């Protein structure tokens, strides 16, 4: 798989779950501190450093025909009352941004990364935190997840797979280590991403990203 359009994933850091809220607001109550950051970093095969232009493999086209990829189709997180449909998404050719589903109650799986069958790498799912027109998004309460919380991702094969949260981290969007979170190597894990922190009405975006890392239970 080729490395293409590295700026697209940098755009994710700047615009994942980009919203159109008309006032400066905080994204609910923020976590007091990050938890499990060191444990999450050890899942990657090689250490990743924060960068605004990571060398993340990004491609366009259909799912690889030579791989038995099992996409997630449903995500349930009991602790924050989430039951959401998962859509396979890529990078928007026009905006160069991660193409999160427009309906805020649905979330997107990065289709050019690993699927649920993987024995290595990060399965990335991103979603909106909220929307001026649609209200709270599926990941509005993602920031409330803590170590030990559980979630279930169901694949297109009908199998429900259990995961356990090991980390919750918040990054300024220019500092998020996307190389780590979109890696195709290291131990298998599920990476959930949404927006967080205060909303900048002038820039029309949240300042931060919330990242939750979960491992097979």
From TrEMBL:
PROSITE patterns for this protein: PROKAR_LIPOPROTEIN (PS51257)
A Pfam match: Sortase
Keyword annotations of the record: Hydrolase, Signal
Source domain of life: Bacteria
Annotated GO MF terms: hydrolase activity
InterPro entries in alphabetical order: Sortase, Sortase_dom-sf, Sortase_F
The keyword Cell membrane appears for this protein: no
Residues annotated as signal peptide: 1-26
Keyword Signal among record annotations: yes
Full protein name: Sortase family protein
Gene source species: Micromonospora jinlongensis
